[in-house]
Amino acid sequence: MHIGTPSRRPARWRVWALPRPARAFVLVVDVAAVAAAVLAARSWPASGQWVLAGWLAGCAVIHLHASHAIERMRRDHSHSPYVDLCSVWIFAGVLALPPLLELGLIAVIYGHRWVLVNRFDAHRPPHRTVFTAATLALSATAATTVLHAAGHPALAGSGTQPGWSDVLVIVAAAAVQWTVNTVLVAVVIHCTTTIKHAGEALGSRSDNLLEVSQLALGVFVALALWWWPPTALLMIIPVLALHQCVLLDQLRLAARTDHRTGLLHAIAWQDQAKAELARVRTEHGQVAVLMIDLDWFKTINDTHGHLVGDEVLLKVAKVITTSVRRGDSVGRYGGEEFAVLLPGVDEAETRDIAERIRTRIHALRLSDPNGRPVHLTATLGGAVYPDIPEQSIEGLLRAADAALYAGKTAGRNRVALAAP
Q1: By C-alpha distance, which of 163, 412, 215 is closest to 294?
Q2: Cβ burial, residue 230 (10 Å; 0-12/13-18/19+)
Q3: Could you tell me which of 86, 93, 87, 83 has the C-alpha nearest to residue 65?
Q4: Which of 11, 30, 224, 384 is the most exposed place for a label (fewest CB within 10 A)?
Q5: Alpha-carbon distance 307 to 239, whole Å?
Q6: pTM assigned to the model
Q7: C-beta neighbour count of 28 within 10 angstroms
Q8: In this predicted model, what pLDDT tens digit does every residue of 1-30 receive, in sequence order?
Q9: Residue 236 parent element (H or E)
Q10: How far is it, in rounded angstroms, from Cα 318 to Cα 312?
Q11: Residues 6 or more apart from 127 whose CB is under 8 A from it?
C-alpha cells in the first residue's frame, strides 16, 4: 500500500484508532450531517436555484485549483488548528441557496479537496475530510435555520430591497455558523490531544479574524449571485489575495520564531537587539541585556524525559514574557537559555526585572506524567549599556554571559550583573 493511500477494508480505517470519546463524537457528527441532508431533500430546489448553485460550485472549484499549492504550504507551516478558506463559498451558499443545494456545495468542495490534495497526505486520512465537511454541513444548517426563522427575504432571491434588519439577521447567521463550527472542532481536538491553552482548540485571534473575514466576503459573493451570477467569478481574485497574504504572514512568523516556545529565535532576537542598541547609542540612552539559563536542565531531561523538558521550556517562556514590560524583546537563545532585551532601564530596574523572572520561575509547580514534581530554578546574568561600554550587542552578550557564569559558580538560582 502506498503512503497516503487509505485502506479499502473498513476494519482497517484509521477512524477506529481514535480514542473512544473522539471516535464516538466524530461518528455522531457524521451521522447528524447525513440526517440534515435527508431532511433538506424533502424540499426540491427550483431550476433557477440549480443555476446559482452551479455558478457557486464553479467559483469554488476554480478557487480550489488555483490555491491548492498555497494551501498546502499554509497547512504545513501551521502549528494551530488549520483554517482553510472555503467558508467564503459556503456562507454565500447559506445566503443564496436552499439547504439541499448548500449541503451539496459542501460535498463538492470537500470531495474536490480530497481528490486534489488530501488523498496524497498520509496525515489526513479520509475520516478527517468527512468530519470537516460534516461540521460545516451542520454549521451551515444552523445558519440557514436562523435565516428561515427570521424570514430573511433575500434567501429566496425575491429581489426585495434588504433593510438594516436583514443585515442583523445575516450577522446573526454568520455568528451561528462560526460558533457551531468552532465548538464542534474544539470538542474533537479536546478529545484527541492534550490542550495546554484554549487557543489550541479555539484557534488564535488571527485564525478567528480570518474566519470572520471569509464570512464577510461570503456576503458579497451572495450579493454578486443575486445581481448577476458571472460577477461572482471576480471574487476569486480577492480570495486568492487573502490566501497569499495569510501565507506570507505565516512564513514571516515562522522565519523569526522558535517553533518550540513561540519566542524569537536567536538570529531574529539579535537583529532586533542590534537595531535597538544602534538607536540607544544615537540617542545616548540606556539598554540592558539579560541571559537566563535554567539550572540542571539536563538532569530534568534525563530524569523526567524530553517531553517534560519541552513542557518546561514552554512554561518558562510564558513566565518570562509575562514578567517583562510591553516592548521588551524575549528570545530563546539556544537549548535552555533565553535572552531578554530591556530598553531604557538602569542597573536597579534591570535587577528588579531579573529578580521577578527568577522568583516566578522558581515558583512554577510542574510534574511529570508519573506525578513526580519537577523543580526549577534559573540563574540570570545581565549587562547594562552604557555602564558596560560595549559598542556591539555581541559585546553586551559576552558581558551578560560572564555574569551568568559567575552566578552559576556562586551557587545558581541568583541574579548577577556585569560590573562596570
Answers
A1: 412
A2: exposed
A3: 86
A4: 11
A5: 39
A6: 0.60
A7: 11
A8: 333 444 555 556 666 667 788 788 888 999
A9: helix 236-256
A10: 10
A11: 13, 14, 15, 26
